[in-house]
Amino acid sequence: MSDTIFGKIISGEIPTDFIYEDEHCVAINDIHPQAPVHVLVIPKKPIEKLSDAEPEDQALLGHLMLAAGKVAKQLGVGDAFRLIVNNGSGAGQTVFHLHLHILAGSTLAEARM
Ligand code: 5GP
């Protein structure tokens, strides 16, 4: 497991509520939400960032997208959500264990980027 905060969350070293878990990933609420709904989908495999993923990770990457859709449904945000991956420090990545941000909520349509 990675030595990052997410590695510690996944291993249970830092106790955190999982709002979703399956064989390959977990979803947790972001500690500093940037939208009314801000959830992180994190693979259990410690890939540092999206651009480090290998062809062997293809199924896992698809799995994360499908898991994000499932989590959004579970959260009741329907089809109104945004998925973000910050890749590398130059793009704002701060935790170097791949994760998808799910953002949703009433203010989302105004927050264009
Ligand atoms: P990044 O900037 O790497 O794309 O996103 C990292 C995200 O992880 C940030 O939105 C930050 O608020 C969140 N985060 C950092 N530390 C923790 C933590 O200990 N618990 C949770 N739930 N979220 C965290």
From TrEMBL:
Motif (Histidine triad motif): 97-101
Xref: CDD domains: PKCI_related
MF terms (GO), sorted A to Z: catalytic activity
Residues annotated as catalytic: H99
Domain HIT as annotated: residue spans: 5-113
Stored Gene3D superfamilies: HIT-like
Alphabetized InterPro entries for the sequence: Histidine_triad_CS (IPR019808), Histidine_triad_HIT (IPR001310), HIT-like (IPR011146), HIT-like_sf (IPR036265)
Protein name according to UniProt: Histidine triad nucleotide-binding protein
Organism phylogeny: Bacteria, Pseudomonadati, Pseudomonadota, Gammaproteobacteria, Cellvibrionales
